[in-house]
Write a structure and sequence with these properties.
Length: 358
């Protein structure tokens, strides 16, 4: 979803400052803040935000309901109610009298982003006369997919570290068996999360197609310290520190030189610097979702301005994202689906030189 313009209506407290910082870190634009219930309708009408974050303590229950009705009904702007405890509105069908979403503090920026985007989507869906029941079904699907995406991000680091430990160990039987069991559990969880991410009605992909490599004692491990692909200088971008760390170690283990970045701006600066130093990168790996920064979709066109021959791999925990499904049409040479292990990483790197999957 595109960047949202947010109007915040809340009492002037330290908690409000924290909320403002949270909205900004989630990648949204705060176009104004008001601190009393009297201002909210006039300012919402004048500046037309994409969504209003409304603190319930500004109003009595009756006035709160009327204010939400006017903002969502008359002004046609979705409202997300901010509370510090679960309110009666939480989880109920969104209507003109009830908020499109509820934000129960405290939350992190990823949770806030999910709630605001879902509220805007559901409000728009209802406005198009497709019915609140259908909107709620869609909302549940979106939330489910977002949860699965976040699970995959967490699994990425775990899987990478387990496989690194397996490959770095001295084949001591007990340690390797325990690590193999842990790896099997992570891969099974990954396959289960894929079932949440890929609706059977729209995708033909199955969990089996994303199976990773398993360690089997007394047999040669799949993958070795000798890299399958040539050695590369790689620029790796991801907003998750744990994924940056684990993937960097995997790539270094395979013999590649790795530089990391957390957003598109850092990628462009590092790419320019490498060009000036006559040490260009052979490849870039770009994450799609970067809250508060430029992701793969916005970064690749800018990279192509610097180097028309740039070779980029797109990375994401969303298997159904258009950029993943049609990566070549967008100029990427491969797509990495989180969580990925050595096998998937090596397969992607092979494509840099026109190689085929293993």
């Amino acid at each position: 979803m595109a960047e949202l313009n947010v109007l915040i209506a809340a009492e002037k407290t330290r908690a409000t400052k924290n909320l403002s910082d949270l909205v900004s870190s989630a990648g949204f634009q705060i176009i104004e803040q008001v601190y009393s219930g009297k201002e909210i309708l006039d300012r919402a009408s004048a500046i037309r935000p994409d969504v209003v974050l409304l603190e319930g303590t500004l109003f009595s229950n009756r006035n709160l309901s009327m204010t939400i009705k006017k903002i969502q009904g008359t002004l046609d702007i979705p409202v997300v109610l901010v509370t510090d405890v679960a309110s009666e509105s939480t989880g109920k069908k969104p209507t003109k009298n009830r908020p499109a979403g509820s934000l129960v503090m405290p939350v992190n920026h990823a949770q806030l982003r999910q709630i605001l985007e879902t509220a805007v989507f559901c409000h728009t869906f209802i406005r198009k006369d497709k019915g609140p029941n259908k909107a709620l079904e869609t909302r549940k699907e979106m939330v489910t997919r977002k949860i699965a995406h976040d699970i995959n991000n967490s699994l990425s680091s775990a899987l990478a570290n387990i496989q690194l430990a397996l490959r770095s160990s001295d084949n001591e039987e007990l340690i390797c068996r325990q690590l193999a069991d842990a790896e099997e559990s992570v891969l099974r969880a990954r396959d289960q999360s894929l079932l949440l991410l890929v609706p059977s009605s729209t995708e033909n992909r199955t969990a089996e197609s994303h199976q990773g490599t398993r360690y089997t004692p007394r047999r040669k491990r799949i993958g070795s310290k000798k890299p399958v692909s040539p050695l590369y200088r790689i620029l790796l971008m991801d907003d998750e520190e744990s994924i940056l760390s684990a993937t960097s170690e995997m790539l270094s283990f395979l013999g590649h030189k790795v530089i990391t970045a957390k957003n598109g701006v850092e990628v462009l600066n590092l790419y320019k610097k490498a060009q000036l130093q006559n040490q260009p990168f052979d490849a870039v790996i770009l994450d799609i979702t970067v809250p508060g920064g430029s992701g793969a979709e916005a970064t690749l066109p800018e990279l192509k301005k610097l180097d028309s021959g740039v070779k980029a791999i797109v990375s994401s925990g969303y298997t159904t994202h258009p950029l993943v499904r049609r990566y070549s049409e967008s100029g990427f040479v491969a797509a990495l689906l989180k969580p990925y292990g050595f096998k998937e990483l090596e397969e992607s790197l092979l494509r840099l030189s026109g190689g085929k999957s293993l």
